[in-house]
Every structure is written in structure tokens, then in C-alpha cells.
Amino acid sequence: MESSATLPLSQLPFVYPATPRSNKAYPFWPCKRRSSLPTRLRCNKMYVPGFGEASPEAKAAKHLHNFFTYVAVKIVAAQLESYNPEAYEELIEFLGRHSLNDGDKFCAAMFRESSRHKNLALRIMEVRSAYCKNDFEWDNLKRLALKMVTESNTRLMTEYVLETSHVESEK
Amino acid sequence: MESSATLPLSQLPFVYPATPRSNKAYPFWPCKRRSSLPTRLRCNKMYVPGFGEASPEAKAAKHLHNFFTYVAVKIVAAQLESYNPEAYEELIEFLGRHSLNDGDKFCAAMFRESSRHKNLALRIMEVRSAYCKNDFEWDNLKRLALKMVTESNTRLMTEYVLETSHVESEK
To answer: In the prediction, which pLDDT does A8 show?
Structure first.
């Protein structure tokens, strides 16, 4: 399943069968080319619609931003659990009442809860900044994601082939 | 809010006020050190609990993996919309019945729907692999996430200060 984004049709026999097997079978890629190619195609990248003025990278960064807040809450909770059970209880109680899906909303709400919660929120914001800048392994993230897509694609195809071979042999 | 993960207490006067204002005020960091530091602290990284045998990077990679499937579906749908309305309709109809939250489950279900859907699933899997390997801008993701955490922290604090200044001035 590894292929370049600009791979021509002729190199994809598996995905694009040469001989359609039914009237409803269709090629997934057109033979003729568009006369006016979008900008993303001109620079050899696939056109990704539906992100408005943002980009997929910006959307992924927003997801990661919320994830870093979640990680920061975990880090701060673990620190407090050992050394400050009172603050730990307050954090857990606040977590029970507020969703962590939107990290910024969570911090904004915590800021306004009480002066003690404000200090907790400041600590979480400080930790998410330090974590994202110093601790998070960006190269590892890329390596794991590339590995995951290759392994998942192979696994999905293998499972399907094994399943259909099994059905065939039972007939 | 920019600080190192190993910043000493003395450099954080804002987060750790020197003079507690009430009986319930508490320091968020202990003065004494643990005698047995976890491995992550030994290598100057903050200890992140709750990820079991996985890591935050693996969890983030799994999120991104599902995101790449979502992007691949968008790319394939946009391609089909212009050139193969019949396949486009089938994809949209399938999307209405199946969640894209788990990309692998989505592809596995599509594989088993019909032989035409199988080809669609193969196309989506091929596109997510190519997108993640060639098109996705990993450096840009990191740049945007770092920018987002700094800007969000500044914005949250500014909003709070402006809000409380406003309340104070009204008294």
C-alpha cells in the first residue's frame, strides 16, 4: 500500500482493476485530466477540501493542543497526589464537572472558579507549554504514525484475505 | 508562560505566591524532593502517568492515524465528486451509516460491504498512506502547535486580567 501521491494509474493494478467485473464497476481515477488544476495539485500534493481557510496541519495542531492540556492535567494531578492531597481533590472534583475536550475552555473556567483554582490553571498552562516545547517527542510521533499507517493497511488487507479464503475453502 | 520543565521554584513567583492569602492556600510544588525519582524525571522529563505501556506520543499517533483516514476520505470524495458521481454517492451513503472516529474500523467495514466498496476502501487506505508520508507537513504541525500553546496561554491570562480589572474599576 505504499505509493506516491502522484503515482500514475498504470502502477496501481490492485486498486484499479483493468477489467471491470460488473456494469457498476468503475475506475476511481479519471483518464482525462482537469484543464485547470487547483494549487495543491500543481505543487504535487493532493487537494484536501473542507478545511476552509485553515489547513489539515492547523486542525491537527488544535487537536494536539487539547491533548497537551489533557497530558498537563495528568502530570499536575500526579504531582499533587503525592504532595498536596487537598489541591489534588479539588482538581479531581473540578474535572468531574468540566470537560477536557476543549483545553482552553477548561483552563478559562478553572481560572474563574476561585483563587486556588486560578493557581491550578496557571500550573496546568505552564506545564502544557513546557511539555509541548521540551518533553514531547515530535520525531517519535512522526515515526509512530508512519509505522501505524503501513501496519494498519497491511493488517486490514491480510485479515480480509484470510477471511475470504476461509469462506471460499468452506464452500 | 514559557518555562523549562526543570525550572526551579524560585523562578515562578506568579504561579507560586510567596505569601499565602488564606488558610487554604497551598504551594503546588513540594519543597522536599523524592528520594526515588521515576525514570522520566531522571532524564529531565516530566512524569506522565496513565498511559499504561503506551506513551503520549503513541496515543497522539493513534489520533493522527484516525485524522489521516478522515482526510483521505475527504480527498477521495472530492476526486469522485467530479469524475465518478455514482461512486461518490455510494461513499456518502456509507459515511452516513458508519462513524469515522475509528479509521481502521471504518475501512474494515467498507472492505466487507461490497466489491465496489472494497475498491473504495483500498483507495482510501492508499491515499492515507501517501498523504501521511508525502503531503502532511510535519514541521508545520510542530510550529503551529508551539505557537498555539504560547498564544493561548497569553490570551487566557490577558482575558482574565482585563475581566478582573473591569470588575475592580466598576466597584
So the answer is: 36
**What's the whole-number mean pLDDT along residues B49-78?**
91
A120 contacts B86? CB cut-off 8 A: no
CA atoms within 13 A on the CB side of B60: 27
CA atoms within 13 A on the CB side of B114: 10
Q: Which domain holds residue B84?
A: 57-157
DSSP assigned state of B27:
-
pLDDT per position as a tens digit, A14-63: 333 333 334 344 444 443 344 444 555 456 788 888 777 689 999 999 99
Q: Could you say which residues from 47 to 86 on chain A have a Cβ atom under 8 Å away from some Cβ of chain B?
A: 47-50, 55-65, 67-68, 71, 74-80, 82-84, 86
Residue B20 lies in a domain: no
What is the distance in angstroms between the Cα of B83 and the nearest Cα belonging to chain A? 6
pLDDT band of B32, cuts 50, 70, 90: very low
Q: Is the whole-model pTM more than 0.90? A: no
B153 belongs to a structural domain: yes
Do residue A76 and residue B7 have CB atoms under 8 angstroms apart?
Answer: no
Cβ atoms B128, B72 nearer than 8 A = yes
Nearest to B56 by CA among A101, A63, A137, A73: A137
Q: Burial, B21: exposed, middle or buried (Cβ in 10 Å; 0-12, 13-18, 19+)?
A: exposed
In a domain, B143, yes or no: yes
Number of domains in chain A: 1
**A 112-151 residues inside an 8 A Cβ radius of B:** 112, 115-116, 118-123, 125-138, 140-142, 144-146, 148-150
Q: Which amino acid is at B138?
A: W
Q: Which residues of A touch B48 (CB under 8 A)?
A: 71, 74-75, 78, 131, 135
Angle at A137 between CA A136 and CA A143, to 5 degrees: 145
The low-confidence residues of chain A, meaning pLDDT below 50, are: 1-37, 41
A91 in a domain, yes or no? yes
- Give me the CATH number covering residue B147: 1.10.1200.210
